[in-house]
Specification:
Strand order of the largest sheet: 1-2-4-3-5
Number of helices: 3
Strand content: 15-25%
Number of strands: 5
Largest sheet: 5 strands, mixed
Structural class: alpha+beta
Order of helices and strands: HEHEHEEE
């Protein structure tokens, strides 16, 4: 996993002020796994940062995903995606950008 991603996760946790662990839904993905997920969902990128070990999808018990999203955006490093229907936030160490509501 990209050390910058670990820094983003640690900064997000500090900003939230919680010492609760993240529940990781997805981290590194092989091309085969990513392709399978793409066949099942239009929300999976062909050149996903998961393939490079630069992304994770996560949640934290007791913390609403919109709160996690806001914290991730405040960090100002990498991508932040909100997936409310699936109840997780995507954080990555790629370019700064955000999506979802």
């Amino acid at each position: 996993m990209d050390p910058r991603l670990i820094d983003i996760l640690a900064a997000t946790q500090r900003l939230l002020g919680y010492d609760r662990p993240f529940s990781v839904i997805s981290g590194y993905r092989s091309k085969r796994t990513n392709d399978m997920l793409r066949r099942k969902s239009s929300g999976v990128a062909k050149k996903s940062y998961h393939l490079k070990g630069m992304a994770t999808d996560l949640r934290m018990e007791g913390v609403h995903v919109s709160t996690l999203q806001r914290a991730g955006k405040l960090i100002g490093a990498g991508g932040v995606g909100l997936y409310t229907k699936s109840n997780f936030v995507h954080l990555d160490s790629g370019p700064v950008r955000s999506w979802g509501r």
